[in-house]
Amino acid sequence: MEPLLEDVPEQLATQRLILRGARADDAATLNAAVSESIDDLRHYMPWAQTVPSLAQSSADCRRMQAKFLLREDLPMFMFERAADGGVGEFVGGTGLHRIDWTVRRFELGYWCRTPHQGRGFVTEAVRALTRFAFERLQARRVEVRMDATNQRSSRVAERAGFALEGVLRGDSLTPQGEPRDTRVYALLAPPAPAQASVANA
Known about the structure:
The protein has one domain: Gcn5-related N-acetyltransferase (GNAT) (Aminopeptidase, 3-Layer(aba) Sandwich), CATH 3.40.630.30. Helix 1 (27-41) packs across helix 2. The protein is an alpha+beta fold. It has an eight-stranded mixed beta sheet, with helices on both faces. It contains four helices and eight strands; from the N terminus they run E-E-H-H-E-E-E-H-E-H-E-E. The protein has helices at residues 27-41, 54-70, 121-135, 151-159, and strands at 11-13, 17-21, 74-81, 87-100, 105-112, 141-147, 163-173, 179-188. The longest helix is centred in the first third of the chain and has 17 residues, at 54-70. It is 28% helix and 33% strand.
């Protein structure tokens, strides 16, 4: 199927969160979140090595929105769900990345704004996106990859039910240019139920 024709809603809701695609007018919100979380992010995120300008955040939001519409990437922002069910405070970023629509393989990513860490928001988002990938996008495989030293990220994957498949030794570089190992977690689509055979009369 042509990826542009994939029916991907812009917004998903969980018990405590609203997950939705980036918009151009999210620039100031994204900029504030990255700026206050830069010390946590820069160790693992290549895109968070310096505090971005508002213009950079604006370009990032527009780029994410364009890729979402083209189905090249499915980045989403996490917001707390307000009492009326609407969008509340910005929590962080997540999404389905490095998509292979032929294989139906997706890599799930996430980061959390520093003041919102430790409240289970990321695990809740990961569970929702994983379920969405299998049930709505007919995923065959969903992966989570992270720096092998990132224990917080590993715990999120494990709490969400992902199985550790292995560690790729020295397969990439840290944002600081040092060799790093990568932990690879994955979930596979459950097997289709077997069709009951009909005995010949």
